Model the fold of this input.
Amino acid sequence: MAAAFTSHWPPTGGRGTNSLRSAIEGVDALVTAEPGVVLTMMVADCVPIALYSPQAQVAAAVHSGWRGTVVRVAKAAVEAMAELGARPTTSSPPLVPPSPPTATRWGRR
Done:
């Protein structure tokens, strides 16, 4: 398992992790070509994006908040996937919508 504590900024690198205690801090995207690795990304009202290239067997999990969208974190993930052999034209990007505003708590609890 690879887990991330998101930063709302561009990816800064990576390393492996086996639990939340060793989660990778300060990244908004995880990419792997390692079979059997589960990528996890925590999001609240931001958009989680799951990308997969069946031909190259490369996967990515992306956290795209407004800052990540501005700096094109999803594009950076696609480029990182390409470095591992994925072709964007054959990749399948299922998008998971953010939580609706009515499901999100704002302000003091």
